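Now for one record.
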Amino acid sequence: NPAVVTSTNHGLTNGQKIRITGVEGMTEVNIGTDTAYEVDNAGTHTFELKDTDSSAWGAWTAGGTAQVVANTVSGLDHLEGKEVEIVADGSHHTAVKVESGSITLTRYANKIHAGLYTNKILAPMPIIAGAQDGTAQGRQKKIGEVAIQFVDTFGCSIATDPDDEDTFEEIAFGDGTDPELFSGIKTDVDVKADYGPEGKIYLVQTLPLPIQVNAIVVKMVTYD
């Protein structure tokens, strides 16, 4: 008391915030994203966890990674007064307003990206299916379900009007602070579509996260 960590040539300095994960045996030292340890009395191969009493913890047996983290970002004077979107360690974070050139997150992260964002819209050509007596061009039709092939994607909505969020239908990709990118086919994706002559749909990425679409296959009803 206080806890002392041994790590060869760790390179940490006093006052830095860190997260420790992956320790076996002394699992009490592992922490999530809501808090962080402060480095104190840093030497070449050891450092203390400030105000941390580890005397009642279990015995260390293996493993452990110490990673520098932060929950504030400064130097954003050029975005003063604007609301910025944030990605923290690959996971979307609620948008935050820049005040006095900085932002404060609700959790700690090692890699933080912050900036202005606008929805990314994929607009395929109007979908023309067949009809009993020829083409469906100009006929009343309705898109029912859609199958979409994604590569390295997290987050997407399907819409019939990219400017009207009431037409958005979110495609589920999971959640959490450590999301995994999805590669594969999402089937039976519902669309909030009505009958009309065009048969248009849009894929909208409302989050500052990756999206790649390789194929779109629709089930359509044509009024013939």
